[in-house]
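Please review this one.

:::
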Amino acid sequence: MSKIINNKDLEFLLYQVFNAEQLTELPRFAEHDRSTFDAILNTAERIAVDYFAPHNAKADANEPQFDGQTVTTISEVKDAWRHFAESGLLCAKHDYAAGGMQLPALLQMAANTFFMSANPASAGYPFLTSAAANVIHTFANDQQKAMFIPALFSGRFAGTMALTEPDVGSSLGDISSKAVLAKDGSYRIKGQKMYISGGDQDITENIVHLVLARIEGAAKGVKGISLFIVPKFITHADGSLGERNDVQLAGLLHKMGYRGTTSTVLNFGEHDNCVGYLLGEPGKGLMYMFKMMNEARIGVGLGAAMIGYRGYLESLDYARNRPQGRAATEKSPDSKPINIIEHSDVKRMLLAQKSYVEGSLALCLLAARLVDEQEAGHDADAGILLDLLTPMVKSFPSFYGPRANDLAIQVLGGAGYTREYPVEQCYRDNRLNPIHEGTHGIQSLDLLGRKLWQHNGKGLKLLMARMHSTLASAMHKPQLSELVSEFEHYLTLVQTTTLKLGAALQQGQVNQALANSALYLDMLGKTVVGWLWLEMADKALDTFADSSNSEDQNFLAGKLQAAHYFIRWELPEVELQARLLQRFDRTCLDMHSDWF
């Protein structure tokens, strides 16, 4: 088995669980079929294996350097970028006329799994660029598109998003970066941004920053924020480069993980001559940026899932080949040690990892499938459901992916703590994801304070309808009937808790209802993943139950056992969470700052 991803698992999710071939019935994807999908996946895997995976540890050990003038990255990063760009994956989702492949989001995300597992730091550059290009492609005027889109799609330019400021953090309504209108219709940008991934590098000719700033005289708060295109080098109408723009690298930040991606502090307008171009309408910057942020949140979820997946496969391989100890019933000192995968507690740790990472991957692919249903299928309900799920798509993998990596280290024992094995880097890389693109707490407030109640709660109704469809199918399979009953118990608890919290919010008890929102996000996220495990078990039985192939039978047995593990070992936490939430527990809310 590959140590990047179990290809059989990816194939199963794409073609059995999420029915990727059905997407070719939509006019946008009519020229595709399974053979084109598989060819794209094979190309992605080849590039990931040949050009991303080999330098993952080297990029971690040899961080980008800044000598005060120039940033230097190792040459392998540039080589990986070139092969990624030449493959066409930077613009795979876009129209044929724009040089794209009109690839479904589901297949693009599946292709991205290889890169996020092989080398998440080097994959950060193209993924940020794709997201920035999508914003410009959607909201920019024709002149701006002509200036930047061809270069972003081809890989000449890279892209970033510049949101965070040193004194503001996630509270974007308080940003102080400003924009002053110039005589030529462009703007002069002034301010400082930090934690800007890919904010400077020596990989591409130019870098296109999407910068949030407040036009001089604009209202305070989020309604006064606009979005600007700010290139590192002034870009002419034909895409050629002019002089260096007034965007200065103040320094590189040195992170625990993701060390191969530059993390930067950028100063805009140190010399009062930073040229920026207003993207779209004034005051709508945050709305535009949320397109990139929501795409990035799903991408962060995928990254967390795949770094967790990589650690799982590494620890699985180690456990299968590491002899140590004997069975509890074996008393003879002359007996041979058994491989540690035979020890029950090691099986527990591997099962937990499997349930976390394969469940997380299913969640991310579900989100991508909903993107296709919304955009290409023109299904508004799919968009409503996606909106509800996005905080969970970001947060569940980001919480349980690092837990999987922690368990991977434990499986390797002392070896897991050394740099001679990759699992310690997986953990360090993954620890960024619970913070990246909105913390767990921020996502939980978004979910419980807003997303659940939009469209009169339609998103939750749509989710429940899908869950009940799975339950109706699974309950007729003897292998799943007991799990269905257990899941229904927890689902009822979640529904009761949700109604109680909603009633409190309607009555104005905002502080009490939202005080434990992080608990609610985890509870609902676990329930969604529990549903997906039932769905995977149901589809696996449909697909492999009658197969005489031993590989198919092992795959089926593994899916069933992981579903049993997740619903029996993980979902019971819903009991405690529901109890705390329903009684509006004030333990955390009532803690005084002086008591710490």
User: Anything to note?
Assistant: The chain has a mean pLDDT of 96.
